[in-house]
Amino acid sequence: MASPRSLAISFFVLLIIPAISARISVIKLPGSDGSNSAAKTYCESWRLAAETNNAGTWNVIPSMCVDSVADYLNGDQYGSDYGVIADYAIAFAKSVQISGDGKDVWIFDIDETLLTNIDYYKAHGYGSEPFDSNSFNEWVVQSTAPAFDASLRLYIALKKLGFTIVLLTGRDEDQRSVTETNLRDAGYSDWERLLLRGPEDQGKSATNYKSEQRSKLIVAGFRIHGNTGDQWSDLLGFAVADRSFKVPNPMYYIP
Amino acid sequence: MASPRSLAISFFVLLIIPAISARISVIKLPGSDGSNSAAKTYCESWRLAAETNNAGTWNVIPSMCVDSVADYLNGDQYGSDYGVIADYAIAFAKSVQISGDGKDVWIFDIDETLLTNIDYYKAHGYGSEPFDSNSFNEWVVQSTAPAFDASLRLYIALKKLGFTIVLLTGRDEDQRSVTETNLRDAGYSDWERLLLRGPEDQGKSATNYKSEQRSKLIVAGFRIHGNTGDQWSDLLGFAVADRSFKVPNPMYYIP
């Protein structure tokens, strides 16, 4: 019969060493592997095309770009991109003359703008799987999405400058309560309005729905100075803000 | 008196070794030097902010980003970015129903869109020096700016699909002849109109000037399906195209 020690050694040889070898075999050396380097370059171009709206409507991220998108989201660049955008937004906000009548508005989208659903998308292929509203709604009701550090910083700075905050989301009206809980737990507070899709908004494109909501704000006397969203459909259409700030989202596209 | 050999050795010790040491001392190892890595991350974020128009108006590139911008422009990524955008533009163009009446238009800007002035900007700090119209105009009259490969490919594909090409540039009317020569030498031909700034357009912002020109095309019965430019002022304003394609330019911003 084998001694405990020889069993332990066998365990090491049988499991640990192959595991280490397997890890070594999948290490990618950028630049040393031509095809990997070409994929990396392509995927950077794809991400820029998506961010600048050159890609137009897309359903899932290119399958060859899953690793590249995951690296981006899990590395420092993603947070840095939000940070630099927040800096530009704050610089613009400081240039706005605040009237003091409470009508100077900054609009924020919620998902991938104020709150990050990265934990959900990590478990769903980083946007390589088609969007599944059932499983996403299960995630939403958990109300555990954290804030982006830079977005919370921007939000607090805007409040301090005297802006009225309006939250305009594609989430449904029946998710109001879980959304408020999540926002508060993540550190957001004192928004003027939280606008969600009502029954009359079902079936509208995000661009139309959000443009209509902005239009109603303008009719109500609000001045929309700034708007921050991760989708172009948060920002384009009609009744657009004086300045729109597009935060990155290489995981999904909402028309 | 020293022998030729000892002189040669002295020369090696005095000049070559310090030169080698100097070279070694400036080698940058991404990731191993915290500040260099942080600058790289910041500059990538700045470039994305500029490309998405989040940065708003800017005069020169951040001084810390000169190396990063030069690396981008001189590496494979810059050309790849144009290539991926051209692919999306061609895919859209193929979806357009061409009427055959010659009124289906695609607009191109010229500088940094059809023609690359990289050789000029290489000699002027890649956008870190304030724009100098005198020296740039000296470059323009040389008529030696090459085509972007991807832009020429897109241009030829659009012609083949039956689009009418309109070139809309911020260059002045008195540069018409040198511009035509440069475009033809670079491989472009058979455009319908080349629109340059006339005396009445001086002092107008690029956004207004270009919007007015697009508006006149629409009044003349043209349908503007696509528009490609390196500046948001090529694309935004009024009378915008059905689809706008923003090609990259991290060197300068024109409001």
From TrEMBL, chains A, B:
SUPFAM superfamilies: HAD-like. It holds the Pfam family Acid_phosphat_B. The keyword Glycoprotein applies. Keywords: Glycoprotein, Signal, Storage protein. The keyword RNA-binding does not apply. Transmembrane segments: none annotated. One of its GO terms (molecular function) is acid phosphatase activity. Residues 1-22 form the signal peptide. Coiled coil: none annotated. InterPro entries: Acid_phosphat_B-like, Acid_phosphatase_pln, APS1/VSP, HAD-like_sf, HAD_sf. NCBIfam families: plant-AP (TIGR01675). May function as somatic storage protein during early seedling development. Belongs to the APS1/VSP family. This is Acid phosphatase. It comes from Arabis nemorensis.
